[in-house]
Amino acid sequence: MCIQDDAIPTISLRDSDSEETVQRLRSACIEVGFFYLEDHGIEEELITDVFEQSKLFFSLSKPSKKALSNPALIRGYFTLDGKIAYGADADGDTKEGFYVGRHFPADHPEYNVAKLKGSNVMPSPELTPDMADCEKFRSVIESYHDKMCELCFRLVQL
């Protein structure tokens, strides 16, 4: 397969067990570094919900967003020009972000800040009074994170 320099390949997971799919994925990663993924199994409704909740989150007031930050775990909100895990002298990011990971409550045996195993920082009526439905945000974002982790595990096993 020949990939044009300016083209990002699209890979379908409809037949992920085929050798052709595996070779296309390998080629995309080595030759281009990126690829679009279709037939991945993530429900369109969930994707739409994530975009909707993201728009609602990023339209919150700055104090509400900043209340949802845990730099030690690289979780929650990160500001425009904020520094995530770079060196102290590194330039900040050119984007805002909201980061989640596998959730470990503080009393969980695997909780370990040094290994970035900790609690997600989610909106709540106390922290984000300008967010109408904090529970919906949490539910959608955690569901999306779980589905994306499943997809990633599926991809690395090809």
From TrEMBL:
Keywords carried by this UniProt record: Iron, Metal-binding, Oxidoreductase
> What sequence ranges are listed for the domain Non-haem dioxygenase N-terminal?
8-124
Which residues are in coiled coils? none
Which InterPro entries does this one have? DIOX_N, IPNS-like_sf
Q: Which Gene3D superfamilies match?
A: B-lactam Antibiotic, Isopenicillin N Synthase, Chain
Instruction: Identify a single GO molecular function assigned to this protein.
Output: oxidoreductase activity
Full protein name? Non-haem dioxygenase N-terminal domain-containing protein
Question: What is the species of this protein?
Answer: Fistulifera solaris (Oleaginous diatom)
